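Re-running the complex after MR caught last week's input typo. The corrected sequence lines follow. Everything else is unchanged.
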Amino acid sequence: MDIGFLAQHLFNGLMLGVIYAMIALGFSLFFGVLDVIKFSHGDVVTLGAFAALGAIAFVGSVVPLPGLALVLGLLAAIAASMAAGMVIGGTLVLPLRNAPPVNVLLITLMAGTILREAIRLGVPNGGNPKPFPALLPDRRIEIGSFSVGIDSVTILLAGLAVVVATHHLVTRTRLGLAIRAVAQDPEVACLSGIDFRRTVLGTFALGSALAAVAGCMLGLYYREINFSMGLVLGVIGFAAAVVGGLGSLLGPILGGFLFAGVQTLVTITVPSASAYKDVAAFAVVIALIGLFPTGLISERASERV
Amino acid sequence: MTAPLLACSGLTMRFGGLVALDGLDIAVERGTTIGLVGPNGSGKTTFFNVLTGLYRPSAGAAALADEDIFAKSPQAIGRAGVARTFQHCRLMLDQSVFDNIALGALRHRHLGLAAQFFRRRRLREEIDALVDQVRQLANRFNPAIATALFEPAGSFTMIDRRRIEICRALIANPRLLLLDEPSAGMTPEETRRLMDDLLEFRRESPDLAVILVEHEMDVIRRVSNRCIVLNFGRKIFEGSFEALIEDRDVQTAYLGSGH
Amino acid sequence: MPGNGLPKRAAAVAIPALAFAGLAWLLGAEREWEIVTILVGFLAVLVVLDRTQPGRAVAAACRAERSVANATAVIATLVVLWTFREEHFALLMVATVALSATACVGLNIQMAFGGIANFAAAAFFTLGAYTAAVLTGHTALPHLLVLAAGGAVTSVLGLVLLLPVLRTRGHYVALVTIAFGLLLRNLLEVNDTFGGPQGMKIPAFAPFGFDFGTITSIAGIEVSFYLPYALAAAALFGMAFLAARCLELSWIGIAIDAVRTDPIAASTFGLSPARWKATAFLIGNAMIGVAGALYGMMNGFVNPNGAGFGESLTLISIVVLGGLGNLWGTVAASAVVLALPEKLQPIQEYRLLIFAAVVIAILRFRPGGLLPRPLRVLGSRDGVEA
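Corrected-run output:
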């Protein structure tokens, strides 16, 4: 096993980790402000990726400028995901705030199903995997036996930047302050003049925008997207958030990298089992949740009696 | 002299930087009623939550009839004979009154699967017996509850809900009963009736020990044998009601240091 | 309100009879307008029973005369089966609806009573079928025991999976079950031990030597070989129904409801939330597994597709649609959800989309489901008061 091989896997793992972290952050943010799990989140990722695909194809048919196509694709993805996230949050999650948590889980799961099925039925030939265009420069950097495309490096750096920016947004800005205040205690936050509904919708918008970027990164890196990928991403993102500590900010990021790391490790140590890649991922989810059902890092304060 | 039913020593509960209970030493003998008073946030409900195993104390020990409480889960503490009401009603509002009260008695019932599936006749007899018992008990507090045992608990007023909660705790036949502000929101007349009912129940089970959290000094005077005052999680007074109203520390805690 | 016994009993006979007549019409219907008419009629009856004074009185009468209503349902089932005795497709449909309803009774015990969101119901159902395939293929175990084994394997595996999670509160059960469902389907697809994507063959159900696959006539009258399956499926549903009712109307019923609604209050009164949630999950999964085993034997094969997430969502849709905790609601919803897309081909492709939208509407505007769970009334001496 040489260094280049390991470096390649390390790179793959980092990429996967950033994507998982971005999705897990959304789960954690929603849980923080509303104490709910919005399970449609994985499908919002898919929606973002398909919106980008549509916009890129449209721009590509008008002007042959890959850079412009990429930017507009990204914007379309963010707009579509934000809209979906806010509509689901405003019409389905908020009204069910005082219902049993399983009802919220169910209603968002069904909302995700609608997104998934709408993509499958609405996109021409939507039931099959769709190629995602390569829009970034395709030169490669070679260091010894390790070779990596500039496009991949760009994606990874952009992802890391987005994660850092989100952290900054939540810890340093007014919206972030409102989000944290509502997460701490909604009633006190409202008393001190914070608009609860707007803050919650803002959180949904923020989380969904992250999902959109994650969706585009997936498409750009793997060059292929499909309608049902949101389910797996949702499960892993949710699991990463749980293991990292639902409601916390750093936890889900670490959780995302943890899952990516374990998944990569499985691929390295058991190369023959590549067919079992997904099986291993789900087994890890089950094992980690079984071992640490309340998270590795932090647990939210116990319920008031 | 026998050991007290409940003996707590050095009970301390911290939430982060906040000290909710600070080195409490409290002993409760069989057959006594303790009136537990103190300003809001002085740690009364926290004390109950620690005693019922919902919170794990930061330090200290508590024994119920010489058995360590904190070695047990909440359900084991319940089975050992501690029953309580909650400050904010915790009833199953969609379930019938009977279901709610029966919950208190479940720990004395056959809960094996086979007993439910294959011994329906015995089960039915047990249920009928409990229905009678619940009806009698509820009748004592409010006949209107007793005649509507199979209406959802959510269809009752807050006061009746609190009565249902008290019935649920009493039917458990506890050794130690913790009542968390049972008269909150009641008129003086309703409170008086509730206390009459409680006193009557009390006479029938002479060994029962009760800790009653209450703001109404009249109620404390009527029902308690001894009073304990908490302030900032610390016990600042223990003694008779007469001594309580004379005590300067208590007056300071309630009225502020200006007086 | 019908005061004396007779009108009440008449109502308790009329409503189930009407429901089964509608079901029979649906089974025989071939034209689209017929099916739409049945669906609209079904909804109209529901609205009348729910929203009008006489309707509510009739519904209350059905609940009060429960045994009469249930007896009517049994007779009506037999009549429907006999009417369609030679129709392969209709009987297959009845058997499928009955077995799904059996699984959904189990799911009801888990979700409505225990509050445990099981998003892998179809995976466990398929697991029951795979158990049957392995046991009938490799052992000479009597087939009734194979059914029982399907239930046992499913419940034990589910319990091992969930026990660590049941000790805590929260959404983690949902996550674990979703992950398990996806894992099982993936594993069955890539692993050749269980036949890979093609799945496994299962011999016909043959209890006490009566091979269901070879039955072509009963007492000299020609019947479809699906008739015994439909009868067995209906009987299985009857048993699951009875068991669920016994459970609900018992101390355990109160215990399970208590740990669902308020685990804190329940635990201070001596109940262990983990124990009662595990009990609900175990019993529910056993029902799902047995139903799956019989379903596999009826179909003659099992493959990983049945374990898909979409199938699990369909089962959950049935439970939510019918009304969490209402077993007759579950039957009605099974019939509508499973039979309608088969009969109304144009919606087949859109069925998941439609179910999802309907479930969202239910959760948003009528969280109790079409037929909400009635209040439990224990005690036999004087029944309901007031």
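None of the earlier attempt is carried over here. Confidence is low (pLDDT under 50) at residues 381-386 of chain C. DSSP finds 16 helices and four strands in chain C.
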